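hey m, so remember when u said the tokens were messed up on ur end? i reran from scratch. heres the input so u can diff it against urs
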Amino acid sequence: MISAQDVYKLREETQAPVMECKKALEESQGDFEKAKLILKKKGEIRGAKKQASTEEIANGIIDAYIHAGGQIGAMVELRCQTDFVAKNRSFQELAHDLAMHIAALNPLYLSRASIPSEEIERKKEVYLKELEGSNKPPEMLDKIIEGKLEKEIAEICLENQMFIKDDTRTIGDLIKEAAAKFGEKIEISKFVRFEI
């Protein structure tokens, strides 16, 4: 028998809806860790659907981080669909972590899609010149160039960078996890970094 106290305890820990918590506890036969995994899996599915939706994301927050010494700073605009999520402490902490990450790693672009195609072509030409005279077959050259490009994209695109607080996840992973957790579309709208 699942008690109301157990349901509310799971709700406090996961922020999932009460009925979802009850169903997860019933499915896991009262095992809290299994229930959390069930909620996470359902949340990820719900979050993926929300990320793909075309619903307007008219809410969110702007957060800033100024590094000690005041020589480096960053601002980020993190968007969501509801004011309820925008006011959530975890959402606000995510925005602050993103601003800190931007200050530390200085991304130039949000994602690969935001890199101008001319810039991609220019980078490929630079890599090709580096490999001139290597006597490698053209198909191998293409793979090497693509590998070098992907490596650079992981360094210069915010969504592809490894999170400074957890190098097992990218910033893109964090955004997907947030969408799953909050059950709505989350996205980084804009960011800027300043350095003296």
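this time it looks ok to me. The first strand starts at residue 59 and ends at 66. if urs says something different then somethings off w ur setup not the seq
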